[in-house]
């Protein structure tokens, strides 16, 4: 109850309730709202995004982290709100070092001895979920990330109130229903709880390091697994220059233009070659490697939030970007319809005309001023008018690109994304979907197809039974076959997926698997 009173007091002081009162609420909800004494508390009159940000900052660590996570959902809260929330400062008072040592002993047991011996008295950084200390392992400088004590109970308490508020707004306003607030709160709660297990972050760091091992573009610190647990993560300590420290970067002899271009190349390499991208590339998590200025290399840390795309989304996103770069709006429209990102009844020529009207003013600017992140934002905003539900992974992608673009332009204001991004995307498309790429994909699928061949007759019989039971016209299935075949959705495992779908009685899953299996048969017959 004390926490509820604190929330009401802070939200009232920042003027959040005045914004809530402006919503079209049912009379009984409005009466209940005004029954609270918030309207007697002197309130600041400020925009809702500022009111929410300052409220979260004053309520403490978990609300701050919630706001940071909410900033990744521009599709829900709007880009202006997301941008404001992304500036939340995650700098909170540290817990004492004796507590940190106690957690190390509990988590690592005897293995903690060398860390306990050299653990710094003052933390290097202190954030809402964890704090970081320096230490040594066999003369190696390391950093030790330790989760805050009792943070689980704090998270559950605060999210309990958030879920109650979200349920109230969802059940009583059309806005709440449209934004699916309860689902958003549940998703963010799950993300925050997962961040408490530092083994996940350690795994992400190790994977990103392996992807860029010996790369001239990005260095990722080594993780020391014997000194990691659910609440402790130990990794190599790195020394770099903050990307926002322009004077230090210049005095160290870095080439700003090359640095900016490398940042863009890192982004596209992660998304389209590795399909595993750092989704929180703000200046606090990206530094310039000061060990060798001639490399113009970055250092990446804090891999708690990573993104991946499905193969289909990766294909359609890549080719959408190529089509946008080439101002081929009809191709953009066709790709959106083929991918299912917009409703099947969308008229391609109307969608293309809408995209043209939004993008052409952007293309009229000098190349150095064109924002690829802004283009993506327009793409998603336009598609939502045609019933597109943007996947969280695509929103993470857009947010990451916004960070990368901002970093690049801060280093080199005349950064030309076209000269860096378009050649990369065309090279990727040729490698993946050109003759050699298709041949490589088919060759890799041959063992899977061979494994399934003995079971093929029985599964074909089930396949035809499913087709006969579907209400969907054959032409529609053939259309989907062409679309899936185009994006390379071929593989012997589709036959197995079909069987599972049939046995589970899921007609929708079965219909999807029918198309996949037909695509497999087409591939075999060719």
Describe this structure in words.
With 526 residues, the chain is α+β, with helices and mostly antiparallel strands. 62% of the residues lie in helices and 7% in strands. Residues 481-510, 512-516 and 518-526 have low confidence and may be disordered.
Q: Measured on Cα atoms, how large is the radius of gyration?
A: 26 Å
Uncertain regions spanning at least 5 consecutive residues: 481-510, 512-516, 518-526
CA-based shape: globular
- pLDDT averaged over residues: 78
How many strands, which pairing sense, and closed or not: the largest β-sheet? 4 strands, antiparallel
SS field, number of helical segments: 26
Binned strand content = 5-15%
CA-to-CA gap between the ends? 68 Å
Question: Which structural class is indicated by helix and strand composition?
Answer: alpha+beta
Count every beta strand, where a strand is a DSSP E run of 2 or more residues. Answer: 10
The amount of helix comes to: 55-70%
Order of strands, main sheet, comes to: 1-2-3-5
């Amino acid at each position: 109850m004390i926490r509820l009173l604190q929330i009401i007091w802070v939200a009232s002081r920042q003027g959040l309730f005045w914004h809530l009162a402006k919503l079209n609420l049912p009379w009984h909800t409005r009466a209940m709202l005004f029954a609270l004494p918030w309207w007697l508390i002197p309130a600041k009159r400020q925009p809702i995004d500022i009111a929410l940000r300052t409220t979260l900052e004053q309520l403490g660590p978990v609300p701050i982290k919630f706001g940071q996570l909410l900033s990744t959902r521009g599709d829900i809260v709007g880009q202006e709100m997301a941008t404001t929330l992304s500036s939340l400062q995650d700098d909170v008072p540290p817990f004492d070092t004796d507590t940190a040592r106690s957690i190390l002993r509990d988590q690592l047991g005897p293995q903690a001895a060398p860390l306990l011996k050299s653990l710094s008295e003052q933390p290097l950084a202190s954030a809402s979920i964890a704090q970081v200390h320096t230490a040594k392992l066999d003369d190696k400088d390391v950093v030790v990330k330790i989760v805050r004590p009792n943070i689980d109970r704090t998270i559950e308490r605060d999210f309990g109130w958030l879920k109650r508020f979200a349920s109230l707004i969802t059940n009583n306003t059309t806005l709440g229903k449209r934004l699916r607030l309860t689902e958003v709160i549940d998703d963010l709660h799950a993300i925050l709880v997962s961040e408490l297990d530092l083994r996940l972050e350690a795994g992400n760091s190790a994977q990103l390091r392996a992807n860029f091992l010996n790369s001239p573009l990005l260095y990722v610190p080594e993780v020391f697994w014997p000194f990691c647990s659910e609440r402790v993560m130990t990794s190599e300590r790195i020394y770099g220059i903050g990307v926002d420290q322009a004077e230090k970067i210049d005095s160290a002899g870095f080439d700003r233009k090359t640095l900016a271009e490398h940042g863009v190349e890192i982004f596209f390499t992660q998304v389209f070659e590795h399909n595993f991208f750092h989704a929180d590339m703000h200046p606090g998590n990206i530094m310039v490697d000061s060990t060798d200025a001639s490399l113009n290399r970055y250092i990446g840390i804090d891999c708690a939030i990573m993104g991946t795309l499905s193969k289909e989304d990766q294909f359609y996103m890549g080719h959408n970007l190529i089509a946008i770069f080439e101002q081929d709006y009809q191709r953009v429209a066709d790709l959106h319809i083929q991918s299912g990102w917009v409703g099947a009844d969308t008229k391609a020529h109307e969608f293309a005309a809408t995209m043209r009207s939004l993008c052409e003013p952007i293309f009229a600017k000098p190349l150095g001023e064109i924002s690829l992140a802004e283009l993506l934002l327009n793409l998603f905003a336009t598609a939502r008018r045609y019933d597109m539900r943007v996947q969280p992974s695509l929103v993470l992608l857009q947010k990451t690109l916004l960070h990368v673009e901002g970093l690049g332009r801060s280093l080199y204001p005349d950064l030309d994304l076209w000269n860096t991004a378009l050649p990369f995307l065309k090279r990727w498309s040729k490698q993946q979907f050109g003759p050699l790429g298709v041949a490589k994909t088919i060759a890799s699928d041959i063992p899977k197809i061979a494994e399934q061949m003995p079971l093929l007759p029985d599964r074909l019989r089930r396949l035809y039974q499913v087709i006969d039971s579907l209400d969907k016209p054959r032409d529609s299935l053939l259309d989907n076959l062409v679309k899936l075949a185009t994006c390379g959705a071929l593989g012997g495992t589709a036959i197995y997926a079909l069987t599972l779908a049939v046995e589970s009685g899921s007609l929708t899953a079965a219909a999807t698997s029918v198309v996949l299996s037909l695509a497999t048969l087409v591939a075999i017959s060719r």
